[in-house]
Amino acid sequence: MTMMQVARVHGPDDVRLDDVAVPDPGPNDVVVRVEACGICGSDLGYIALGGTGAPLSEPMPIGHEFAGIVERVGRDVRDIQPGLRVAVNPDDRNIGNGGPEGAMAPFILIPDAKIGSSLYPVPAHVAPELVALAEPLSVALHGINLVDVKPDDKVAVIGAGPIGLCAVVMLRHRGVRNIAIIDREDSRLARARALGAEMTINISRESMTEMLAQAHGEGTRLGHRHVGTDVFIDAAGAPSALTEVIAVAQFRTRISVIALYKKPCAVDLFKMMMNEIMLIGSVALGRHAEFGEAIDMIVAGDIDLDPMISHRIPFGQFNEALDTARDAAKSAKVILEFA
């Protein structure tokens, strides 16, 4: 029996590389050899929490942003061949999100694999670390779609972490040019500008409201000042920022919350009612079309995605990679590479 190492969460702040058997495909399954896997903020959250919040009956595998090559196929699989390079949509099996499989491993089983659902073919010339970005890019795109962003909208992205950077990329892909982004780290804001943000706002020394008023205009309604921002994409999960957004939002502002809020957040419902503010959460399920659109954008190569990736670290240096990903001042997207 051939063995491999898989990253699995055993409890709060307890993640280990466990020795497990390399999977064999069932009749309708495929085994993918992982080439690259991104470390997501949710992976770090699962490690800190000890899983998804429910008691673990067995260790939980992690890793859901990945690309690889089909290694083996089940006997009844007809339209997928070994050697096919693919991105994998993790949703169907909750890969790395509480399901039985996780992609922080050299090989992963994809049960009931289907092209256009779980597997998305990509040309061999596209770098695997870029293909692995399809998952977070489609997360951002789903949140953008929920608030019906148009090319002439004035958009502010709160948070320049990996999902905020993905939002900038997908807004540009959709033709939006008037993009502001807010964060506390200059290094992350510099990446956002390189990806296409027109204005960067460091709220450790600048007022978000004043800077947005400069970028998007301002006005008054019912005696209250507002900024001219049409859409806010919340990729930060900071209650103080969301409170400020609602306080200065104009009539019929749309707000998409992609961020993970770890605690309940007070919301001014009077302001929301009086200004008909749309506030919607986005968990990015049912995103097959958006995943495919993200793949097409990556393959087209019209937007340089390199500024999104701050580190490429071999899987053998797993703990170093986690430490790097936890350091917001140092890292953006950290990619685990597999030999």
Automatic annotation (TrEMBL):
<dbReference type="InterPro" id="IPR050129">
    <property type="entry name" value="Zn_alcohol_dh"/>
</dbReference>
<protein>
    <submittedName>
        <fullName>2-desacetyl-2-hydroxyethyl bacteriochlorophyllide A dehydrogenase</fullName>
    </submittedName>
</protein>
<keyword id="KW-0479">Metal-binding</keyword>
<dbReference type="InterPro" id="IPR011032">
    <property type="entry name" value="GroES-like_sf"/>
</dbReference>
<dbReference type="GO" id="GO:0016616">
    <property type="term" value="F:oxidoreductase activity, acting on the CH-OH group of donors, NAD or NADP as acceptor"/>
</dbReference>
<dbReference type="Pfam" id="PF00107">
    <property type="entry name" value="ADH_zinc_N"/>
</dbReference>
<dbReference type="InterPro" id="IPR002328">
    <property type="entry name" value="ADH_Zn_CS"/>
</dbReference>
<dbReference type="InterPro" id="IPR036291">
    <property type="entry name" value="NAD(P)-bd_dom_sf"/>
</dbReference>
<dbReference type="GO" id="GO:0008270">
    <property type="term" value="F:zinc ion binding"/>
</dbReference>
<keyword id="KW-0560">Oxidoreductase</keyword>
<dbReference type="InterPro" id="IPR020843">
    <property type="entry name" value="ER"/>
</dbReference>
<keyword id="KW-0862">Zinc</keyword>
<dbReference type="Pfam" id="PF08240">
    <property type="entry name" value="ADH_N"/>
</dbReference>
<feature type="domain" description="Enoyl reductase (ER)">
    <location>
        <begin position="11"/>
        <end position="336"/>
    </location>
</feature>
<comment type="similarity">
    <text>Belongs to the zinc-containing alcohol dehydrogenase family.</text>
</comment>
<dbReference type="InterPro" id="IPR013149">
    <property type="entry name" value="ADH-like_C"/>
</dbReference>
<dbReference type="InterPro" id="IPR013154">
    <property type="entry name" value="ADH-like_N"/>
</dbReference>
